[in-house]
Design the sequence.
């Protein structure tokens, strides 16, 4: 059977599964809609959190980025996992004891202020929209390559599916769908990784294989990482395992990006709300552990996949004649994610450092003498002739390693599972922020259960449409947009939630000033760098790492302002006291 | 707040401080600040610093959370604040 037929089967089956689960777990109470009735087991919540968390960027883009970045890829690996330690120790148990529906709910009550609630609300919506746009784009890319439809059609199909199961089942539907999506995405990731590890190093465990020796070919008996270092330096790149080398990031930048990603992870509203869905504080602690365990399975495989992909890519296409290029190369050329310009007219693909031409490839639609797509881009004076989009490294990996068609189809289903699960979690945050915090808590306290559910569902519909719009007209690359969301989450929520739990003295004046200062600085810096082309001016920190500084500003401003304004009222201090002790965590309370 | 609960909270904070110190040492210490020195040591095909940055720190993170879970469970029961 062809790849396309297999893909329709795999994607069809997995979508059928999600829709069935959504139908079975449909809800008609706000408690079910927002926190799945607070009855999810820690194991299931761990899986759901892992799926919620691992987005299109983790599944599709991360290994590709690491593959090109070598050592520096650790910013994603440590950054996106280390945050769970912060989450498990500093946030999850206390927020669970507090037991409300949303993050703005905590902020609004802890800081006894509707202004704080609204600021948190705006931050939550802003972060979620920035993040969800990248997911929708991811759905589009997977569809366009594997189902041979237009990227935009792919986005529309994704929107329909998410709307159906998020609208119907709310948090409950999303949770159990995410459990299924985790299973799909982890198998889709592991199976090709194991097969490729066996092929290259003879070791079935990728985590060990990439530190092992190569079996077969000219490099037999050499360590894979040593071989990669040699291949990289021969072509003029920095050594694969060398930190802070030429063309890589500086130590301070690596430090700040890792920190921003960790703190951002701990501050992401769609991850935090997942801890409201377990029955008690103990469950919140345990499910943080399970979540990281399930995430680690993918995150420790990714660097292995990255090194295998780089080895295979350089070996199979560099210095090979275009006419003899493998079939995956030509398949991906048709999607515009690979392009080749024969600068020296020798018919051979030369892969070297630097951009082959200015900008993203724009094909003229005509074919060259060898059948390659011709480009209208201006070539650079670099020797490099190859444009290769980093996002394809995972998606093309099974094809590069000549795995059977059903594996390639499974990877497509996995990529869709990763993107859809994250998108649905984010859409729920957006809808509950508006339906619960804005509509019910601020606008209409008399609203009936039925009205509130309706508002929640309508908001999901509106949010899906906005997310789809951003998916079709993306504001940046998938991974870049996600990095944006992290910086903003790090600089807005994390400090005031931590202070809200650990410092009774922190008051509303401090929290509001802190959030506004942190998020405005971070947003301003990112916009300067990403959109106005300003060079990094703050001790060389890039846009991805500036959330760390924004977070420090938030901490400093919050604490300083709190010192000079009246302490919080006694009942709030009692509230802070009570969340420190596990006993008595009820179901999500909805006063 | 009774004396007991004060003690409970300070033991919790102490446990957190220890675990977060380990967290910082493996990630920021071994993975970033001292990566070059550690890279001179090799385990199989891995330079050690590179291994910490791309693999080792993640394993430690998982262990830390489970250690916290079990230690807190014990602490909760000792002070009778468990659910």
Sequence:
């Amino acid at each position: 059977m062809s790849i396309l037929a297999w893909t329709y089967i795999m994607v069809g089956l997995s979508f059928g599964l999600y829709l069935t689960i959504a139908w079975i777990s449909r809800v008609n109470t706000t408690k079910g809609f927002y926190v799945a009735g607070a009855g999810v087991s820690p194991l299931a919540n761990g899986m759901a959190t892992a799926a919620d968390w691992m987005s299109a960027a983790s599944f599709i883009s991360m290994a590709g980025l690491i593959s090109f970045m070598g050592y520096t890829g650790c910013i994603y690996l440590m950054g996106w996992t280390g945050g769970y330690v912060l989450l498990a120790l500093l946030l999850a148990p206390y927020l669970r004891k507090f037991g409300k529906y949303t993050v703005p709910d905590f902020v609004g009550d802890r800081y006894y202020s509707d202004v704080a609630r609204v600021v948190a609300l705006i931050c939550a919506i802003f972060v979620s929209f920035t993040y969800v746009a990248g997911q929708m784009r991811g759905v589009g890319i997977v569809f366009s390559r594997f189902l041979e439809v237009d990227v935009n059609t792919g986005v529309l199909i994704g929107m329909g599916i998410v709307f159906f199961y998020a609208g119907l089942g709310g948090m409950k539907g999303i949770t159990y769908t995410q459990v299924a999506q985790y299973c799909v995405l982890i198998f889709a990731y592991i199976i090709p990784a194991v097969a490729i590890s066996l092929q290259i190093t003879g070791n079935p465990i990728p985590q060990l294989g990439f530190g092992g020796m190569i079996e077969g070919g000219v490099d037999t008996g050499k360590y894979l990482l040593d071989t990669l270092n040699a291949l990289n330096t021969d072509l003029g790149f920095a050594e694969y395992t060398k930190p802070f080398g030429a063309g890589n990031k500086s130590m301070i930048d690596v430090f700040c990006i890792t920190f921003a990603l960790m703190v951002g992870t701990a501050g992401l509203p769609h991850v935090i709300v997942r801890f409201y869905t377990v029955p008690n504080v103990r469950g919140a602690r345990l499910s943080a552990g399970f979540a990281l365990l399930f995430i680690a399975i993918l995150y420790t495989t990714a660097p292995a996949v990255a090194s295998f992909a780089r080895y295979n890519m350089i070996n199979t296409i560099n210095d090979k004649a275009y006419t003899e290029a493998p079939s995956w190369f030509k398949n991906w050329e048709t999607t515009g994610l690979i392009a080749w310009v024969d600068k020296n007219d020798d018919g051979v693909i030369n892969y070297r450092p630097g951009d082959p031409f200015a900008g993203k490839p724009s094909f003229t639609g005509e074919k060259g003498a060898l059948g390659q797509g011709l480009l209208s881009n201006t070539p650079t004076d670099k020797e490099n002739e190859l444009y290769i989009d980093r996002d394809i490294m995972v998606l093309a990996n099974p094809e590069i390693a000549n795995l059977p068609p059903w594996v390639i189809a499974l990877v497509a289903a996995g990529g869709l599972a990763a993107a859809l699960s994250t998108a649905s979690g984010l859409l729920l945050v957006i809808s509950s922020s508006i339906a619960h915090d804005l509509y019910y808590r601020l606008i209409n306290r008399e609203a009936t259960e039925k009205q509130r559910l309706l508002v929640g569902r309508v908001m999901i519909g509106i949010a899906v449409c906005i997310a789809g719009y951003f998916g079709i007209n993306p504001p940046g690359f998938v991974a870049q947009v996600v990095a944006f969301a992290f910086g903003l989450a790090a600089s807005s929520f994390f400090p005031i939630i931590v202070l809200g739990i650990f410092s009774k003295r922190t008051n509303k004046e401090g929290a509001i000033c802190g959030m506004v200062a942190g998020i405005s600085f971070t947003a301003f810096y990112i916009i300067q760098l990403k959109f106005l082309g300003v060079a990094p001016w703050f001790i060389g920190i890039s846009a991805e790492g500036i959330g760390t500084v924004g977070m420090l500003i938030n901490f400093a401003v919050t604490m300083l302002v709190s010192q000079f304004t009246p302490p919080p009222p006694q009942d709030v201090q009692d509230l802070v006291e009570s969340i420190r002790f596990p006993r008595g965590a009820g179901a999500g309370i909805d006063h | 707040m009774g004396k007991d609960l004060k003690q409970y909270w300070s033991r919790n904070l102490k446990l957190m401080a220890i675990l977060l110190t380990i967290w910082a040492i493996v990630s920021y210490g071994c993975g970033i600040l001292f990566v070059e020195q550690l890279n001179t040591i090799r385990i199989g095909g891995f330079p050690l610093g590179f291994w910490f940055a791309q693999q080792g720190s993640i394993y430690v993170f998982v262990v830390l959370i489970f250690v916290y879970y079990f230690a807190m469970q014990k602490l909760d029961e000792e002070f009778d604040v468990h659910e």
In short: The CA atoms of residues 7 and 79 of chain B lie 9 Å apart.
